[in-house]
Amino acid sequence: MVKLGELERAIMDVVWDAPAPIAATDLRDVLKASGPEGKEPAITTVMTVLSRLEGKGFVVRDRDARPHLYRPAMSREEHVAELMHEVLGSASDRDAVLARFVGQVTPHDAERLRKLLEA
Length: 119
Hints:
Layout: H1 6-17, E1 22-23, H2 24-34, H3 43-55, E2 59-62, E3 69-72, H4 76-90, H5 94-104, H6 107-118
Antiparallel strand pairs: 1-3, 2-3
């Protein structure tokens, strides 16, 4: 299972929320504006993390654009669903895991699950 570090997660949140592919400098500016004072990552750090995220299959880089533009390789929802599937697949007792999960969801989410299963 591919886990994201704190900065990787913050960068992916910006990439997922961006209305269009985003340049590393613009991404850094968003991180700078939304993060705590004095906690702005260097552009080289952002570019290194983007390169790692590309290698992990989280972002796609448009090499023809100048500067390079990054877009998500999958939606946030696809990523979360993949994580859930991987966790469930790693369980030795899937029924117990599903029962525990269903027992902890809110009534509202349980109703949503029922509707999705019926569809």
